[in-house]
Amino acid sequence: MLVLFLLAALQAAPPPPAASLYTVGPNDVLMVTVLNQPQLSGKFTVEADGTFAFPPIGRMAAGGLSVRAIEDKVRERLLAAGYLNDPRVSVVVDQYRSQQVFVMGEVKQPGSLQFTGAMTLIEALARAGSTTERAGTVALIVRSSSGAGSAAPAQNPNAPSKDTISVNLQNLQSGALSQNVALRAGDTIFVPRAETVFVSGQVRTPGEYVIRTSGMTVRQALALAGGVTERGSSRRVQIIRVVNGKEVATGVTLETAVQAGDTIVVNERFF
User: Fold this and answer.
1) Spatial distance between the Cα atoms of 186 and 153, rounded to a whole number of angstroms
2) In the chain, which ranges are E strands?
3) Structural domains in the chain plus CATH codes
4) pLDDT digits (tens, 9 = 90+) for 148-177
5) Residues near 237 by beta carbon (within 8 Å), at least 6 away in sequence
6) Model pTM?
7) Cα-flanking dihedrals φ and ψ of residue 128, to 5°?
8) What's the pLDDT tens digit per position in 167-210?
């Protein structure tokens, strides 16, 4: 199961970039700590103009800055105001609210995720509940050229674009963690639905089945459907395929390659 792999990979994957490089924006909540100065420490919300009130200094700019840069600014302001000779300042993001990534398509919990500045593809898929059984083998990461963290999700993830990164989920599941892409604010992850075939007639479990491998054969598709029943004949198999807008039924062998949208029909034995 991909979900089990995602959870295991979260532990095995190398750590993402430091959260101290996260770019702060409106609605983020900062925890500012000045060593041995509880009256100067506390939680502060960044407002729409990118500033936050930091008594007794006044308003501090934070929007577009990393927490490390904010630490430096707070330290400089405290020194300039003469409050402390050697202020030791720590700033962390207490609540991430300004930036998002979007997960769409064949995942169990599609929607937006709060971006923490250190998120990978594996983490995003895990937080979205993993992929569904109908998911294809590829995930597309659509990256906004502006990198805006609050941008709406891409409307056409399948459109060719130099800003689209394609990741093979099967390779990732096989351990190719080099494909565990580090995400950016505003990224849209789209997991397309897998191509399928329909199996009907004299098989044990008729239904729709996902094409998981390139060049899937009739034999493999029938195996997914539980195999041929005692009344069925593996020599009397047809594929119904839409050609030029019309359904065409063709007799096939067990080694015939199937195509997306095919309906495989297993007929009864003659006797």
Assistant:
1) 8
2) 29-34, 42-45, 51-54, 58-61, 89-95, 100-105, 111-114, 138-142, 164-168, 188-191, 196-201, 207-210, 232-243, 246-252, 263-268
3) 2-11+99-191 (3.10.560.10), 24-95 (3.30.1950.10), 196-268 (3.10.560.10)
4) 455 456 555 555 445 899 999 988 888 888
5) 218, 222, 251, 252, 253, 254, 264, 265, 266, 267
6) 0.70
7) -90, 10
8) 999 888 888 888 899 999 999 999 999 999 999 999 999 999 99
